[in-house]
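anyone seen this seq b4? input:
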Amino acid sequence: MAEEPSDTPETAEEEPIKQRKNGLYPGVSDELAENMKSGWADTELRDLRPIPQAAETAARRAALSARFPGERLVIPAGNLKTRSNDTEYAFRASVEYTYLTGNQTEDGVLVLEPKGESHQATIYLLPRSNRENGEFWLDGQGELWVGRRHSLTEAEKLYGIPASDVRELTGALREATGPVRVVRGYDAGIEAALTDKVTAERDEELRVFLSEARLVKDEFEIGELQKAVDSTVRGFEDVVKVLDKAEATSERYIEGTFFLRARVEGNDVGYGTIAAAGPHACTLHWVRNDGPVRSGDLLLLDAGVETHTYYTADVTRTLPVNGRFSEIQRKIYDAVFEAQEAGIAAVQPGAKYRDFHDAAQRVLAEKLVEWGLVEGPVERVLELGLQRRWTLHGTGHMLGMDVHDCAAARTETYVDGVLEPGMCLTVEPGLYFQADDLTVPEEYRGIGVRIEDDILVTEDGNRNLSAALPRRSDEVEAWMASVKG
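predicted toks r here
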C-alpha cells in the first residue's frame, strides 16, 4: 500500500492540507506545485442519465415532506471511520440517506428546506478535488489517492436533486432559523451545528418515520431484493462445490467462498456470514468462522449478498457436510422444516405480524413434547415459553436495506402490526441443542438447525424469493449431489 502524501504548498488564505508524519518527501517545490496544476484533460461526464431509482427516491422525499411541513429536515450519509492509524473502514452510507437519495458517498447530507406547502431538497456533497491548491494529489482523500468524485453538476443529473458544496453547510445550519430535525448518529459535525436547534424527541420522530416508510417495499426495492437473493443462491452453490476444501482448512474457506460471490455480483455481504459447522451451529451469531469442518457434521450457513443499492438477502440452510443427513440430524431437520412450512403459510396480507412466529413455535413445541424433552401439554409449554431453551430466537424480521430492517419502527406498526402486500420478511425457525445441555439425550447434543427464507407478502398470499434453494431434507441431499457433480 502506497504511503500517503506528506506535504503541501501553503498559502496565507488557506489552511495547509493535512500532512503525514514521517513522509519521505521533505516538501513540495514551487515548480512542482505549479506543474501539477495544469496539463490535465477535461473529464466532466456530460451524458449521464438519472439513477434507476430516481423516481422512487423523489416519491420518498415527497412523502417525507408531507409528514413534516414547515420544518427543515437534515439527513446525513455519515463520515469515514478510522480502522487503524491512517486507514479507514469501507464506507457504507446511512440507510436513511441512501433511501431518500440513492447516493452512497461519505460526508453527503440531504437537506429539505421548507418552501411554501412543501420543501426544496438539496444534496450537499464534496465537489471534485481542488487542483489549484494541490488537494487532488496531496490530501489523503484527494482523487489521485482514493479515486474520482462526481462533480456537483454530475450529481444533479444522477440524483435529480440540486447539489451544493457540503463544506458550506455547517455554517449555513448554524445560522438557520425555524424548526429543524436531524437524523442522529452519523455526522457529529452536522449535529454540532444544530445542537441548539433540535431536540432528541423530535429527531427520534424523524428516525421512526423513515424506518416505518420502509416497511412496504416499492417495485424497485422488490426487484433489488430478488437480485440479492438470486446472487445468494449462487453463493450457496459455490460453497457446496468446495466443501472438501473447507474440510481441509476451516469454516473460513466457506466464508471466503461466499464473500467472493458477494463482491463479484454485489456490493458486499449484507452482514457477517455465519459459517457454523458442528456444534458451532448452536451459537446463533457465530461469525468467528475459525472452526473445523468435518464429514458427518452439519454446516449451518447463514449468509446474504448485498446489492449495489444496499438491499440484502438473508438466507440460511443447514447442510450435511458429507451430503447425507444422519438419522438424528434428519429427525431434527425435518421438525424445523415442518415449523418453517407452518410459518410461511401464516404469511398473508391482513394477518398479524406475530402469526408466522406463533405458528412455527407451536410446531417446535409439539416436537419437543413428542420427543419427551419438555413436559406438556403444548399450551403450557408455549404459555411459559419453555421451548425457548432450544428455539432461542424470534422466527423472523423485516428485510430490506438493513438485514434487520425498519428496526426503529413503532411496536404497534411492526411487531404488533398487520402484514401488507409489499412487506418482506424472513421466516427462520431453528432448534439448537447445546453441546453441554444435559437435559437432552447425548445424540442431540451439538446439533443446531435453522432454515431461513425471504418471504414477500403479495396481494393473495406470499412469494418465497429464495425458493430456488431446496429446503426439504431429501431435496437438499439431491441438490448437493447435483451441485457437486
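The chain has two domains: 49-214, 219-484. Residues 219-241 form the longest helix (23 residues). kinda curious what u guys think
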